[in-house]
Amino acid sequence: MSPKNAVIISFILLNILPAAKIFAQSDSASKVAFSGYVDGYYAYYTDSVGDGNYQKFPSVCPRNGFGLNTAMINAQYDAGKVRGIVSLHFGDIARSAWSPTFNNVMEAHAGVRLLKKLWLDAGFFRTHFGTEGLLPKENIASSVSLCTWFEPYFESGFRLNYNPNDKLAINIFLLNGYNIYEDNNRKKSFGTLITYALSDKGNLGYSNYIGDDTPTAGDSIAHLRIHNNLFLNYQINKLKIQIGGDYCMQQNSDTLNKKDVSMYSGVLGLKYQLKESFAFYTREEIFNDPHGFMSGIVIDKQNKQTGLELWGATVGMEYKPTENSYIRLETRQIQMNKDQEIFRFNHNNQSSRIESLFHMGISF
């Protein structure tokens, strides 16, 4: 941790949080809630990227050896007509997967209630898009699928939040762009998240992103992106099921022909609760972006320019000493198209990678 980050954390712990707690106690109509989350790990990858470097697709447990996924501090304020949240995070996830300019800010936004069930919030948000969450404690598996890795992690702008009843939630976003806090052009983007509670056992949802993130300078061709996601979470006795899929289209994005292109991805997660504190889980994933407009271009063994095409399989086990803690052991294989040898192990180029993760976390 850098000296600058250490100073920030010390200032928050010694000044802001105690002051906010005193303020909350003095106002009976308001409520301030504080929470935290810590996750540490050991990881091993069959890909030679060098000691201390982040692996390809870095997010959860992104380095060989020991590391800290996250140390998070949250403060949430609710006064009936106004609300706000500040979440600061430090560790490998913040450095490898977050904004390069605001990498320690996970989210920070303020809101005002316009009507009884309608809120307007503004600021920095965690993504509204996708099937999986971004943190190990939120997901069936610890690592995030490649479907999730190529989705946006964070965003900035305005959000309209409408909850007409206990089952339905509608969120509409006006955003700077795709996975950015700071705007890169004068165009704004839109997003939607709609969730419906089927029962206390699960929910169904749809999210989308519509925008053109082409920089103003140097490219006058439009690249409108329409990204769609459907997901289902459901519990059947001891079995938890999570299934989701993405389909994305973008204008003028083929590297050679400047034509309209598309990609798709999908994820299926299953978790079986063998005992109250012990569970097994598995996840299957597929990602297909043949034109590389989202994943980037690689040169395959046939000397062709292609985008990433892959599938992945994950298996793991989880032990929960308490309700708010966990210990996980997980193994995953990513298998690329056989001609896409993007990994290197034992001095040989490879089209697959094995990763093994051991980590533990606690929320408080």
Task: Describe the model.
The chain is globular and about 60 Å long. Strand 6 and strand 7 (168-175) form a beta hairpin. Strands 1-2-3-4-5-6-7-8-9-10-11-12-13-16-17-20 form a 16-stranded antiparallel beta barrel. The protein has a two-stranded antiparallel ribbon with strand order 14-15. It has three helices and 20 strands. Helix content is 9%, strand content 53%. The protein is mainly beta. The relative contact order is 0.12. It has a single domain (3-23, 30-363), classed as Beta Barrel (Porin), CATH 2.40.160.
Annotation keywords:
single chain, mainly beta, Porin, two-stranded antiparallel ribbon, 3 helices
Let me know the CATH homologous superfamily.
Answer: Porin
- The coarse overall form would be globular
The order of strands across the largest sheet is: 1-2-3-4-5-6-7-8-9-10-11-12-13-16-17-20
Provide the helix percentage. Answer: under 10%
Q: Which radius of gyration do the C-alpha atoms yield? A: 21 Å
- What CATH calls the topology is Porin
Count of β-strands? 20
Number of domains: 1
Low-pLDDT residue intervals, each spanning 5 or more residues: 11-28
CATH class: Mainly Beta
Please work out how many helical segments DSSP would assign: 3
Indicate the structural class: mainly beta
Distance between the termini: 22 Å
Oligomer classification: single chain
| Overall pLDDT score | 90
CATH architecture: Beta Barrel
User: Strand count, sense and closure of the main sheet?
Assistant: 16 strands, antiparallel, barrel
Q: What is the beta-strand fraction?
A: over 45%
Order of helices and strands: HEEEHEEHEEEEEEEEEEEEEEE
